[in-house]
Amino acid sequence: MAHIQVAVFVVLMLALTALTWRKVAAARAASHASADKEIFLAGGGLSWFFVAGAITLTNLSTDQLVGMNGNQMLLLAWWELAGFIGLLLLAFVFVPIYYKNNCTTITQLLEKRYDGASIRTVISALFLFGNLFIYLPAVIYSGALFMQTLFGIEASIVAIAAVFAVVGAGFAILGGLRAVAVLDTYAGIGILALALVVVFLAMQAIGWDMTTGVPEERLTMIGSLDSPIPFHTLFTGMLFIQIFYWSTNQNITQKALAAPNVKEAQKGVVAAAIIRVLIVPPIVVIPGIVAFKLFGDVDDRAYGMVVAEVLPDWTSGMFAAMIAAAVLTTYSAVMNATITLWSVDFHRRFIKPDVDVRKLNRTVGIIAMIASVALVPVYAGAESIINLLQELNGLLSMPILSAFIAALLFRNMDARAAVVGLVWGFSIYAFHTFYLYVPENFGGVSWYATIGLPWVHYIDVMLFVLVSSVAVALLTNLVVFGNRASLAFGKGAPQLNEA
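and the corresponding C-alpha cells:
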C-alpha cells in the first residue's frame, strides 16, 4: 500500500475514533444512569438515529460484504429482503414486550414468562456459545481476508484478525454500548456511501451489462433445489430465521433496548428496516456478479478483487478505513452483547452479585478476544463464509426461537420443559448437519437425495426443528411435569406484553 493510502487510512480511523469518543464523553457527562445501564444500554439515551445505525452496522460487516458477494449470485439478496420483515416484527411486536418487562437481556423476558429460571440460564449459555465460537471469530476472519485480498498484505490472516480483535475489544471494554452505537452510526454513513460507489463503478466497468457471459442460475431470484436458497425455502424456514435474528437475538435487540422509550426505539428499528430493503441488497450481490464476469468463480475473494479493480488507487485507503470500521463495529457490538450476557445472566446470579461491573467488563472482554482470535483458523478453510455461518446459526436459532414462541403463546409452562424442547432442537439439527446432510457444497448431493427427498434443505430443516421443539416442550410440560398449557391470548388470557 502506498504511503498516501496508509496516511488516508490512519487519518480517517483517527477521525472516526475522535468523533466517537467526543460524542460518548459528552453524552456520559449529561447522563445520570448507573454504571450498569451506561455499559449495557448506553444509559438508555440512544436516539432513533443511533439505534438505526447500530442495528445496521452490527449486521453489515465483511462477513456480509465478503460472504454474500462470494456466492456471486443475485439469489443471496433474499437474506436482506426477508430481513425487512424481521425488523418490522422487532419494532411493533417485540420492542413493546421487552420495554414493558424492563429487559436488559432478552433472556430476562423468558424468566418472567416461564415457571422457573433454568431456561434463562440455558439460552444465555447458547448465546454465549454462538458469540464466542461463531460470530466473533467469523467477523475478524472475513475482515482480515478482505484486507489481505485488497492490498496483497503478506501478514497472516490470524495476525490481521488479531489487530481487529484488540481494537474492537477496546471499544467494547472502554466505551460500552454507547461507544459501539456511535461508531456504528458514523462509520455506517461512510460504509454505505462507499459501497454504493463500488456498485456504480463495478457496473460501469462491465458496461452496465450484467447478463452477457454470466450463467442464468447466477442472475435468477428463483433458486433451484441445489442453490444456496431454494425458492420454496422462502415459505418454510426463512421467515423464522429472520424473526430469530432480528427479534430474539441479544446482539441486535440490545441496540433497540437502549433508546429512552418505545417510540424512539421503534423509529430507529423502522429506519434500519428501510435501509435493509433499499440500500443493502445491491451492495451485497452486484459486486459478486461483476467479479464473476471479470475474474470467474473466485468465491470469497470476489469483493476484494472487484474493489481493487474499480476503485481509484487514491481511494483505497478511504475504503479500507470504512471496511475496518465495519469490522470493528460488528465485533465490538457482539463483544458488548457477550459481556452483557455473562455479567447479567451468570456472574451476578451465580458468582458475585455486587461485582465491580467495569472490572468484570474488562476481564470478560479480554478472555472473549483471545478465544475469538484462536478460532480464526477454523474459518480459514471455509469455501463460503456466509453459507457456513447461516448453517451453523441453525444450531442455536430455531431451538432458542422455540423457547420464545412457547413462552409468548402459552401459559402454565414449566421452564424445564422448554429446556427439553431446546435440547431436542439443538440435537436434531446437529444430527442433520453433521451426519445426514453432508453435501459437497450447500445444495450438493446429500443423504436426502438417496431416499427421494432432494428438496430438503437446511432451511427446511430449521422449520422442522422449530415446530418439533415447541411440540416436545408442550408434551414434556404435560407428561413429565403435569402442566396443561393454555394459549396466552383470547378471552381471559393476559396480553403478550404482560409479564
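(Above: one complete record from the training split.) Strands lie at 410-411, 486-487.
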